[in-house]
Amino acid sequence: MTARAAASTQRRSCPGRPSALVVSAAAKHPRLQGTARLLVGVLVGGALAVALSSCFAAPPQIISLEPNRGSTSVPADSTVRVVFDRAVAHASVVGRFSVIATPTTAQTVSPAIPGCDFSTVFAAATTAPCWIHWLDPQPGFELIHQGAVFRPATRYTFTLAGGFADAQGDRNDLDHHWDLTTAAAPLVSASTPADRGSDVAVDTRLAVSFSAPMDAPSTAGAIALLPVVPGTRVVRNLNDHSRFVILPGQMLAPRTTYSISVGGSARGEDEQFVGLPTVVRFTTGARLESTHAVVLAGLAAEDPTQVMLPALAPAAPGEPSAAPVVLTAPRCALAIGCGAVASGTPLLTYTAAAVSPDGSHVAVVVRNVTARTSSLQVIDTIDGAVLEDLPAGTLPSWSPDGAQLAFATPTGVDLLDLRSGAVSAVAAQTSLVAPPLWVKTTTLVLSTAASATTPAAVELVNRQLQARYSLPGAPGASIAAAVSPGGARIALGTATGGVLVVPAPGAPGSAQTLAGHLQPLGFAGEGTLVAVNTSSAAAQLLRISVVGGDTTVVVLGAGTTDLSSVRVAPDGRRLVCLAVDAHGVRQAYVASADGSGELAMTRFLSGGLEARSVGFSD
């Protein structure tokens, strides 16, 4: 703060000499001279104190400035506050407050704050781009200017000219000056993928990071992915407001050049516009990089009409996962209907789906509503091509390497070799009550239904040995529910509501019976089973030690969880489930195998689609 004028205050009349009568009396009485001198000293001292306080009262002073004098990197919408040591007359300040702006790359510019008329700020309404707010009862005022923000990277010099006074008329005639420097305009600081990236995965996590926290609506609206991908959303990271993730509504097309553009309408949280529009270009390859679940979705009154492949984890904490749509069922577009299908209703529905472990293929049971037939379609998720259409195929199950697909047919169990496209019979004249399971890539576990000549059983089919036989130790009418990630154990659900864990062919160990009424779901590691405990009225999700029998309750906190929908990932590290969210919409969720870190994979809105099933490779 500097002064350019001498301080002056309004003077008051000073009292006369208080010792005159005392001196006169002392002259007439010499004996009183000593006493008079003492009395004169006291009176003179008191009078001087009175005179100093009366004649030289201090003027009002500025005791606080916000932002402080010399502040740098000041946000563009920062309020400028001036606080005095006492109340000042408002009228004495009006017209004395001014500002000049000097950008770091230019001469002084006008207006200093674009859109702000400083000549009217003290009279402006609160709806004006800039206006003065008096801090009463605190002595001071502040400049509010959200509708007219500072220029970026600019030194502002504020002046409060001398002449402001308090209610008693004591006036401060100093000119007060202070500087501050605003932050640079926000810029794009990083992107995923990087500019000119190549061989980018078609399910890559797209993101743009800025040099400062950004306003969500304006910035999301300024970010565009071209060519347009239907259903694409742009979302700000909840934890890092400088990062925005682009969530394509479908897989990106392979071997295609895309651009992510950031327009000039993007604004920082301080309302400063982005300094430079940016375009990031990249070219996709023909690969995927994320692990996916498969979700079937549909309207409340319809069978599923959409197949989605949500990623199991977001690119960064605080942001949602992408959930690209692989299939959307067509609807009847004729006002008179399409045969037995009413106008506007789906011509196809999806009744089951399984995604290969690497996410590159998905097998979907498709029902043709008009023809009343169904088939198992095998789809390349990278380019969207339908590779196989297997009539009446159901219960698809992928091998751990994704090279083979086992499935049920009306005449038995078949196997599709994805490399050659060949379909071969695995078990003729066999009906299944559950999808086939895989022990590594060579052995199938079949849960067969009872027939007129054979009881229900769990059987093994060894593809290398061309052998088919009953699983040793498996009780009659049991169902194979899960195989451990390393292929060492098989969990069976028994007809009495129990669980028996048996060693897989060639694996060491013995059968282990687990206590209680349990519904086995999958393995979280070789020695830990995830199951629903149905022994009590309130079902519980448990992690059970296969050897020791120790149990741990798994708590899933998002919404109302349907425990029967829980599925465990083939590697045992994650589980997925369906749950009704706070808005009454059924969503698909993913969590660690212990229930921690639960996140929504879908974000359907009320009155629209909802998740119907969620799973993995079988």
TrEMBL record:
InterPro entries: 6-blade_b-propeller_TolB-like, SbsA_Ig, WD40
Name assigned to this protein: SbsA Ig-like domain-containing protein
Transmembrane segments: 38-59
Species, as recorded: Candidatus Aeolococcus gillhamiae
Record bears the keyword Membrane: yes
Keyword annotations from UniProtKB, A to Z: Membrane, Signal, Transmembrane, Transmembrane helix
Domain SbsA Ig-like: 58-111, 185-284
The UniProt record lists the keyword Membrane: yes
